[in-house]
């Protein structure tokens, strides 16, 4: 039997054997890119803030990609304006927390994870925000067996990821901050302004040591959003992550992520599928922008966001279909159902938008006949 170990993030259990032999379904960033982080650390001779594994320059290089003097290639983790990454990294080197803001699918979580991995070597100090996130998830909880047996004590206290990051001088992450109830959000105010977390039950406090900082992600386009108070928003330096600027950038992002996810799922590479990726990206961008790429036809936009993340999901699912139920070549029929599911969220209004787009744009586009037939078949 493999030894069971507690996951440091949420108390769930994993096997030590599974972690050791690389069978994790989604390895943490610091594990997936350990070789690149090690090479950067060896080549990095620039000043590093307290307890940082890399200098700010090396952190930015890790996210944006580059080639080191010894020939090591650092793959880009984020495709977008360099200045955005530089501002985000610089913020973490100060005493200001970082808020990554953007519509769904702009790689906020991806950037947050890789920033924490490069800065602290650990991206697992994570609070996942939901409508049911309690205050204890940000502050601390109690081991109730210890509490009942011995009363309040440090041994009975269960530190949150934020508390552990403060004590160890590391980077904590709070995902989907605006989904957390407003009164729980404001628990962070003392942490970010005073750099301390009081424990009134013990008459003690945990003070943040040098190196501590916090990255939060949020968007204001989803349902169930709780606005940040002005007091909390002032504690953050906000960096807005835009959607990919060009179709080429978005195709590059989708191709890279599908390749990474495909390898983890043991799906074969699909170089012939680049044309289908371009089609998916084109459909999403046109419906998202309400305008065809040539600027000639205005379109109605569906209720969904049609983000890059959803395009990645559609193509990954299509690749799995092609692998397990086809000949391994990604074709229009493999992505058609995924596109329909992404576009038609509201069965009444969105279906009208989709049908109009198919008949007025896709049907008349040169070289898209197979795509049109596949989409008509699943839409019937």
TrEMBL record:
UniProt-annotated stretches for the region Disordered: 1-24
What region holds the ATPase dynein-related AAA domain?
A: 98-236
Give the matching InterPro entries.
Answer: ATPase_dyneun-rel_AAA (IPR011704), CbbQ/NirQ/NorQ/GpvN (IPR050764), P-loop_NTPase (IPR027417)
First and last residue of the signal peptide: none
Bias category Polar residues: which stretches?
1-15
Q: Which SUPFAM superfamilies match?
A: P-loop containing nucleoside triphosphate hydrolases
Matching Gene3D superfamilies: P-loop containing nucleotide triphosphate hydrolases
Question: What is the official name of this protein in its record?
Answer: AAA family ATPase
Give the species.
Streptomyces bugieae
């Amino acid at each position: 039997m493999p030894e069971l170990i507690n996951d440091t993030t949420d108390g769930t259990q994993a096997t030590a054997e599974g972690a050791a032999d690389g069978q994790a379904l989604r390895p943490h960033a610091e594990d997936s890119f350990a070789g690149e982080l090690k090479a950067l650390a060896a080549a990095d001779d620039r000043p590093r803030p307290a307890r940082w594994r890399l200098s700010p320059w090396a952190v930015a290089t890790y996210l944006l990609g580059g080639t080191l003097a010894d020939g090591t290639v650092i793959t880009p983790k984020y495709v977008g304006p360099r200045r955005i990454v530089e501002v985000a990294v610089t913020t973490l080197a100060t005493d200001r927390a970082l808020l990554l803001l953007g519509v769904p699918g702009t790689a906020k979580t991806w950037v947050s994870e890789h920033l924490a991995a490069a800065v602290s070597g650990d991206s697992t100090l994570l609070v996942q925000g939901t409508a049911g996130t309690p205050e204890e998830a940000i502050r601390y909880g109690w081991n109730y067996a210890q509490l009942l047996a011995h009363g309040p004590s440090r041994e009975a206290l269960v530190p949150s990821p934020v508390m552990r990051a403060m004590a160890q001088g590391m980077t904590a992450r709070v995902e989907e901050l605006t989904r957390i109830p407003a009164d729980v959000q404001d628990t962070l105010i003392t942490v970010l302004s005073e750099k301390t977390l009081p424990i009134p039950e013990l008459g003690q406090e945990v003070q943040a040591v040098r190196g501590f900082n916090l990255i939060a992600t949020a968007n204001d386009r989803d349902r169930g959003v709780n606005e940040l108070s002005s007091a909390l928003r002032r504690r953050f330096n906000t960096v807005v992550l835009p959607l990919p600027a060009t179709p080429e950038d978005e195709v590059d992002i989708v191709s890279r992520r599908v390749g990474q996810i495909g390898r983890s799922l043991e799906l074969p590479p699909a170089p012939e599928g680049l044309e289908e990726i371009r089609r998916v990206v084109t459909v999403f961008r046109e419906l998202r922008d309400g305008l065809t790429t040539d600027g000639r036809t205005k379109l109605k936009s569906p209720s969904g966001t049609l983000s890059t993340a959803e395009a990645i999901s559609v193509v990954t699912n299509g690749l799995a279909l092609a692998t397990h139920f086809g000949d391994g070549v990604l074709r229009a029929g493999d992505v058609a159902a995924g596109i329909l599911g992404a576009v038609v969220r509201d069965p009444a209004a969105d279906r009208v938008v989709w049908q109009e787009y198919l008949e007025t744009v896709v049907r008349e586009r040169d070289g898209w006949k197979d795509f049109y037939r596949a989409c008509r078949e699943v839409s019937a």
